[in-house]
Amino acid sequence: MQEQLAKIKKDFLKAMAEVKDILQLEELEQRFFSRRSGELTQAMKNLKDLSVEARQEFGKLANEVKHELEEVFAKKREQIETAKMGDVLEREIIDVTQPKLPEKEVGHLHPNTLVQNDLEDLFTSMGFMVLDGLELESEYYNFTTLNMPSDDPARDTQDTFYIKGHSDWVMRTQTSSMQVRALEKYGAPIRMVVPGRCFRNEATDAAHEHTFCQLEGLVVDKNISVSHLIGVMKELLRGVFKRDVETRLRPGHFQFVEPGFELDIKCLICGGVGCGACKHSGWIETMPCGLVHPKVLAYGGLDPKEWTGFAFGLGMTRLVMQKYCIDDIRHLQGGDLRFLKQF
Ligand code: DAH
Q1: Which of 17, 88, 142, 195 has the CA that lies 20 to 30 A from 301?
Q2: Are residues 124 and 59 in the same domain?
Q3: Of the residues 41, 63, 91, which one is the last residue of a structural domain?
């Protein structure tokens, strides 16, 4: 037993002298101290086979050896750990003069997108589909199918940008350009809205821009009348302004609706008494609309005797400006972060 302990101690000290890192140290711990198969643990377990006297004698010795080895082991571990820490500190260079790195900027939605998202939710809740249209559109869908043939003077009110060498393609002037495309693709009955950008060759000022957003609506079904149009418009305005608003219809002229209307809302600021915002009339012009012209239905492949419908064109940009009290349309595309960060 004595010899066995002496050999374990010798082997342990020899192996310990060769240990260079923590991994080797852990291997050594396994080899000598492991509870199940450690050499020293094994020797201690053998004590129980000895006679009582021998157990007393060698038990004491075995404990001394164990403590001695554990002490050597603990010292070595401390040495290795301090050396490692020193290494890390030596490699780590902290430049205390380095300026603070800029914080990551988190983006957010543009006010146009916020309003568009709300409107899409509202219309889908009423069973409308939301369609994407083409920003570069053929003259045919932008004008001709909307009852504006090539010699129609009504085209002059919507001058836009043309593509060199492709004079029959234009930057669309109105999202109404999707009316006939949608009828051709989906037929009737149909309930759809098309939000998106439109373009006009405008001299810009606080109220006019070459790029702005509209939302076109179209419903075609059997026996559609002006009362359906008014019902949907009221629901839309209630959703937008979060309260009941009083409306009135005035006659308005657009080539692709008959009859055509301008829908006004009673001024939300003065309640109809008259103020600067409503030009002292008590009413604010909000939405052009009307019953779909039979020629448009025919372009869409439908029989106007069988089908009727209504359409409306919501000026989304104007709505964004009203909602957030923006006094100059040019802010919306100016890219000025001082403006955009307010939303
Ligand atoms: N697209 C027309 C414009 O930009 C607005 C409009 C008027 C749309 C009447 C409609 C409508 O759907 O029925 O001036």
Answers
A1: 195
A2: no
A3: 91
Considering the domain architecture, whether residues 46 and 143 belong to the same structural domain is answered as: no
- Each residue's pLDDT tens digit, 27-68: 999 999 998 889 989 888 888 888 888 888 888 888 999 999
Report the C-alpha gap between 86 and 84 in whole angstroms.
5
Q: Is the CB of 216 under 6 A from ligand 1?
A: yes
**pLDDT given at position 332:** 94
Same domain, residue pair 72 and 118: no
Task: Identify which of 211, 285, 312, 318 to mutate to test ligand 1's pocket (most ligand atoms within 8 A of the CB).
Answer: 312
Integer angstrom CA distances of residue 117 from 90, 108, 110: 55, 13, 11
Q: pLDDT tens digits for 219-249?
A: 999 999 999 999 999 999 888 888 888 889 9
Q: Which domain holds residue 328?
A: 111-340
The answer to whether residues 87 and 204 belong to one domain is no
**Separation of alpha carbons 152 and 242, rounded Å:** 40
CA 144, CA 333: separation in Å to the nearest integer? 30
Query: Are 56 and 165 within one domain?
Result: no
Q: Has residue 103 been placed in a domain?
A: no
Cβ proximity of 161 and 171 under 8 Å: yes
**pLDDT in the model for residue 92:** 81
182 within 8 A of 154, measured Cβ to Cβ: no
How far is the centre of ligand 1, averaged over its atoms, from the C-alpha of 163 (Å)? 24
Residues 170 and 218 in one domain: yes
C-alpha of residue 28 to centroid of ligand 1, in Å: 86
- Last-in-domain residue among 63, 91, 119: 91
Q: Which atom of ligand 1 is nearest to the CA of 217?
A: 12
From 174, 192, 198, mutation site for ligand 1 pocket: most ligand atoms within 8 A of C-beta: 174
